[in-house]
TrEMBL record, chain A:
Organism: Somion occarium
Superkingdom in the source lineage: Eukaryota
Pfam family, one: RNase_PH
SUPFAM superfamilies linked: Ribonuclease PH domain 2-like, Ribosomal protein S5 domain 2-like
InterPro entries to which the protein is assigned, alphabetical: ExoRNase_PH_dom1, ExoRNase_PH_dom2, ExoRNase_PH_dom2_sf, PNPase/RNase_PH_dom_sf, Ribosomal_Su5_D2-typ_SF, RNase_PH
Domain Exoribonuclease phosphorolytic: 6-87, 90-153
Similarity comment text for this entry: Belongs to the RNase PH family.
Protein name (record): Uncharacterized protein
TrEMBL record, chain B:
Main location as per UniProt: cytoplasm
Subcellular localization, as worded in the UniProt entry: Cytoplasm; Nucleus, Nucleolus
Pfam families listed in its UniProt record: RNase_PH, RNase_PH_C
Keywords carried by this UniProt record: Cytoplasm, Exosome, Nucleus, RNA-binding, rRNA processing
Family listed: Belongs to the RNase PH family.
Biological source species: Somion occarium
Protein's name according to its UniProt entry: Ribosomal RNA-processing protein 43
Sequence ranges assigned to domain Exoribonuclease phosphorolytic in this UniProt record: 8-134, 160-225
InterPro entries, A to Z: ExoRNase_PH_dom1, ExoRNase_PH_dom2, ExoRNase_PH_dom2_sf, Exosome_comp_Rrp42_subfam, PNPase/RNase_PH_dom_sf, Ribosomal_Su5_D2-typ_SF, Rrp43
Length: 202, 242
């Protein structure tokens, strides 16, 4: 397609990330599925029409995992895309929700994921639109509505944290940019003020 | 040039380390498994080092199977780790002829800015120092090895080999620790690996050779000695503070 960018997602799970060392081959079906899930999560969110005839590569490396792999990968990819400066329609915040008998649980560990039914939900917090829902375990349909709503709310909480992290980093960058003009000793006082005024306009 | 060795806390691995040499960042994890020893070496364990240079770490690596560079690096690291005797393979034996430890040392490069070999060796050495293995006992009757869940013994690590790499530009200038910008411009690169007591473990040279000043190699070896003792102190400091 000539009018938009391709998104390519590659997931690499290092052998020491789980309790049992397992060298996963690149063509492992679970890993390919993970990659393509992340890809379809981000395709409607990234403004790909701004980059025709190019490819955006997202590399996910898992160093340590204890449950919530898909959601952590999606959250990390969102922050990485933001830090790369790629325009997105909104954040994507993902969280796992599960039900243990009747008690709802969020953000499950590996032991919990193996035991109780769980669903992964990825939301775009501003519009409250849901960009991904996956569930591979059996869950009673009455329970599903509650846990889905809870996971969407949890997505809002994660959004707050992600936004805080992004603002901190941006603040550091802006401070560094402001320091820049002051470091040059030969710059006129007038020039410096002009440059800082320009920054304030942003 | 900033060098940092951090004690990683990857709890799923038996030992781990994170190393930054300038901008080159490498994470290494050690996992131990049990296997049967070779028939002709019944009381020796195995060390399996491996390094991965994924597409993430640098635009010069494309996604796909491991590049030649990664394979060559893995091979060199394997040779050095075995030659330096950092871990005596006999110390990995649980029961001669029946069960031994296999240490899988996996390193992954997160950011490549040249000189991955030095950083990878340092990461593997630091991770080995950090490794704790459960106490294992071989049961004669059942033929199985059981590991204690509680008691963890630190690995017996001998002298740490540390590598210092140099590159020769234009047959005259010697650069220490070349970056990714400098690497393609160098005619020759060589790595000097030294042990704790000032003994040379290995010297590897790739390229045209040192044309010109004959004393260059000696000067580099002296520089490597000083550099390696600095780095070794860094590793000891991190493991002492953890």
């Amino acid at each position: 397609m000539h009018d938009r960018a391709l998104i390519n997602v590659e997931v690499n799970i290092v052998p020491f990330s789980t309790g049992e060392r397992r060298k996963r081959s690149r063509g492992d079906k679970r890993i390919l599925e993970l990659g393509s899930t992340i890809k379809s999560t981000f395709e409607p969110v990234v403004q790909t029409s701004l980059y025709p005839r190019s490819e955006i590569d997202i590399f996910v490396h898992v160093l340590q995992q204890d449950g919530g792999l898909l959601q952590a990968s999606i959250n990390a990819s969102t922050l990485a895309l933001i830090s790369a400066g790629i325009p997105l329609h909104d954040f994507v915040c993902a969280v796992t929700g599960g039900v243990h008998s009747t008690a709802p649980m969020l953000d499950l560990t590996t032991l919990e994921e193996n035991d109780i039914p769980h669903v992964t939900v990825a939301v775009m917090p501003k519009t409250k639109k849901v960009t991904l829902v996956t569930m591979e375990t059996r869950l009673h349909v009455d329970r599903f509505g509650d846990i889905f709503k809870l996971a969407c709310e949890a997505g809002q909480v994660i959004h707050k944290e992600m936004k805080r992290a992004v603002s901190e980093r941006t603040q550091k960058l802006v401070t560094a940019m402001e320091m820049g003009p002051r470091v040059v000793p030969s710059a006129d006082v007038g020039d410096r003020d002009a440059m800082i005024d320009d920054l304030n306009d942003y | 040039m900033e060098r940092r060795v951090c004690q990683c806390s990857i709890s799923t691995a038996d030992g781990s380390a994170l190393v930054r040499l300038g901008d080159t960042t490498i994470v290494c994890g050690v996992k131990a498994e049990i296997a049967e020893p070779e028939l002709d070496r019944p009381n020796e364990g195995f060390l399996v080092p491996n390094i991965d240079l994924p597409a993430l770490c640098s635009p010069k690596f494309k996604p796909g199977p491991p590049t030649e560079e990664a394979q060559v690096l893995s091979d060199r690291l394997n040779d050095v780790l075995l030659a330096s005797g950092i871990i005596s393979r006999i110390s990995l034996c649980i029961e001669p002829g029946k069960s031994v430890w296999v240490l899988y040392i996996d390193a992954i490069c997160l950011n490549y800015d040249g000189n991955a070999f030095d950083a990878a060796l340092l990461a593997m050495v630091a991770a080995l120092r950090n490794t704790r293995l459960p106490k294992a006992a071989y049961n004669e009757e059942t033929g199985r090895t059981t590991c204690s869940r509680r008691s963890l013994l630190p690995l017996q690590v001998n002298k740490l080999p540390i590598s210092s790499s140099f590159g020769v530009f234009d047959s005259t200038h010697v650069l220490a620790d070349p970056t990714t910008f400098e690497e393609p411009l160098l005619d020759t690169t060589f790595s000097v690996i030294m042990n704790e007591d000032g003994k040379l473990v290995s010297v590897l040279q790739l390229g045209l050779g040192l044309v010109g000043q004959p004393g260059t190699l000696d000067r580099c070896i002296a520089a490597a000695k000083a550099h390696s003792s600095d780095i070794r102190n860094l590793v000891y400091d991190t493991s002492n503070t953890s």
